[in-house]
Write a structure and sequence with these properties.
The structure is a homodimer. By secondary structure, chain A is of the alpha/beta class. Helices cover 29% and strands 37% of the residues of chain A.
Chain lengths: 191, 191
């Protein structure tokens, strides 16, 4: 998606450890009008009209998922990272390794909110090694729900998490895939 | 707001430790169409047209703030809970005690995204002792920004965090204030 690639080039910054910061419009300050354009773009690639739920992971996926949910007219569910005493039994759980936090975290989702009757569209803002996405796919699988597709805003192509998910046969569409990010700037995969 | 009080009565559950769960529409599964009604309600109480930024705290405030941001046509910023190595210098920081997690957490916000020129509308989904709200007010103060108002969906009136914020002169509007929650059901403050 050209508008997203342009925005990454204009506003993105590269930190040591291949960390790409787009926190001016995606995951700290959030331009929700622009997120609505991303939501419209996902809808060109998947039959969203069949979806009954949007699923994402806290925290930074929530804004994009909320805008998708509002635009598509279906509820969203965000899987939580286990830590709160606010959540009791009846949970799907999936252990993942968080690249951001450099440790294992458990994604949890109440069984009440994703069931075998659901048709789930998974959304996330960012994918590096794809661990969070694997956790969300695991939750959809545990629920016995149908997967409509996976929409990701920005994929770090050089970390290959997305490629492995595609190789496993999942319908993943990332709106921008960064192949290279260094002092010379960003390079994107042709799609 | 009657529609919100009704929804709490119909779907809310009360757990030991005065924990109120509304995770079917507000903070796990999220009914974003309903959140848009809450956003419209806030706009009756505050001059949102003057606001330049919505500010909330991760994680569960993000969905409501995203919908407010989209409806009002201004960006949102979510303060993060310090833990990630994804955030460098140039930060506002405010230490708060999290009722949910029973420990101190530091709210952080990059100085880039809230400045002295901003007019900030603070939004959160839930208020118990008001600690997170204090942290957000602290960030607005550190930035030297103007506070337009504070909109909260559900306030636990019996924990008095909101009352103290009002006593301190801040313009806080909670759309439902729960005064009592026990086996007989919910009671709300008349507003």
């Amino acid at each position: 998606m050209e508008a997203l690639e342009q925005r990454i080039c204009q506003e993105g910054r590269i930190l040591p450890g291949h960390i790409i910061k787009v926190d001016g419009f995606l995951n700290h300050q959030v331009d929700t009008k622009f997120l609505a354009e991303l939501a419209d773009e996902f809808a060109k690639h998947f039959d969203i009209s069949r979806a009954t739920k949007i699923l994402t992971a806290e925290a930074s996926g929530i804004a994009l998922a909320a805008i998708c949910s509002y635009k598509y007219g279906i509820p969203m569910v965000f899987a939580k990272k286990a830590k709160s005493d606010n959540i009791e039994g009846g949970l799907y759980m999936s252990e993942i390794f968080s690249y951001t936090y450099k440790k294992k975290v458990t994604l949890i989702c109440a069984k009440d909110w994703i069931t075998a009757d659901d048709k789930v569209f998974i959304v996330d803002d960012f994918m590096a090694n794809g661990e969070a996405m694997r956790g969300l796919l695991d939750i959809v699988g545990q629920a016995g729900a149908e997967l409509i597709g996976i929409g990701c805003a920005i994929e770090k192509g050089f970390q290959h998490g997305g490629d492995k998910i595609r190789e496993d046969g999942y319908p993943l569409k990332s709106l921008a895939i960064i192949e290279k990010a260094d002092e010379t700037g960003f390079e994107f995969r042709k799609q």
